[in-house]
Amino acid sequence: MIPLQGQSLREFLQGQSLNFMKKDTHPKYDLNTKATCACGAVFMVGSTMPEIKMEICSNCHPFYTGNEKIMDTAGRVERFNKRKAASVKAKK
C-alpha cells in the first residue's frame, strides 16, 4: 500500500494494522504518545513509551528560540594575550 499524495505517514499508518513485525518480540508502538515538556509544550509523537516527559524542547531551547547567551570571550582572549606578552618579555 502506498500513501496518497498529501497524506502524512501518521495518517496513512492510522488505518493500517502494523503486522509487518514479528509477533511478541517488539514492544507496542503507539502513534499517539503525548510528549510533555517542562515549559508546558505538548507534542503528539510516535513511541513505544506510553508518555514522555522532557526537560527541554524546540519551543524553549535557546538555540531554537534565538535567545542564545553568547559567552564573553573577550576577557579570555585579553587574559591570554597578556600572559603571552609576559612570557615573551620574560624570555628576553
Labels describing this entry:
alpha+beta, elongated, 3-stranded mixed β-sheet, 3 strands, 3 helices, Rhinovirus 14, subunit 4, 92 residues
Commentary on this structure:
The chain has 92 residues and is of the alpha+beta class. The chain has a single domain, classed as Rhinovirus 14, subunit 4 (Irregular). 30% of the residues lie in helices and 20% in strands. It contains three helices and three strands, in the order H-E-E-E-H-H. The chain has helices spanning 9-14, 62-65, 74-91, and strands at residues 30-37, 42-47, 51-54. A three-stranded mixed β-sheet has the order 2-1-3. Strand 1 (30-37) and strand 2 form a beta hairpin. The radius of gyration is 26 Å and the shape is elongated.
Strand content: 15-25%
The secondary structure category is alpha+beta
* Count of distinct structural domains: 1
SSE order: HEEEHH
Low-pLDDT residue spans: none
Fold blueprint:
Layout: H1 9-14, E1 30-37, E2 42-47, E3 51-54, H2 62-65, H3 74-91
Parallel strand pairs: 1-3
Antiparallel strand pairs: 1-2
Short description:
Helix content is 30%, strand content 20%. It is an alpha+beta fold and 92 residues long.
